[in-house]
Design brief:
single chain; about 210 residues; alpha+beta; nine-stranded antiparallel beta sheet; 4 helices; about 25% helix; globular
Length: about 210
Amino acid sequence: MRPYGVVSVLETALLVLLAACQQCTSTFLPPEFSQHNGTLYATCLLKPSTALPEGLPKLCGEVLFKQDQAQGKLQILLRFHGFPKDGHPEPRAVHIHQYGDLSQGCDSTGGHYNPFGVHHPDHPGDFGNFVPQQGKVHALIDSEATLFGGLSVFGRAVVVHEKIDDLGLGGDTGSLLHGNAGRRLACCTIGISSPRLWDIKYKQYQRQSVLFI
């Protein structure tokens, strides 16, 4: 049987550690978490890369994010326009990249956001391919990425690519890094936002979806 004093010291140390952990966790919760009843929102305003060669489509649009609580699934609303309207539309890859640095266009956003060091397409921001309709992409998806904690994608970039993502099946190194998705057409930096833009665009998306049922 351990002396009473030893047990008390151990218990006290444990309580101090637990309190420190709780304080560390709380530092990853911005004030908007409480202001919006436990939901975080983000906006990413897409613009063409400043390093884009002539002849490639110049895209604009937005990527909107919503996540209810840290355990909730991250919803993402994609709204792009500027793709060619004629011919057969080609699928285009969309990914989250490591850096929100747009100082050299989309080329300074680094590689895919890959916090776990795994192969593509298992990065949390590997969104896959989207086929434009009438020059536009309007899509609502769920993602394994998060707006919460140390793995939050706040401050990182969304990049729209020139080509289709081969989803890691290309049989080469590039396939396992980035899906051989080609040049970076457009990008934006993910920033925290109010619910206003999400609410507006989500209602528009719902109305459009009803029209095509």
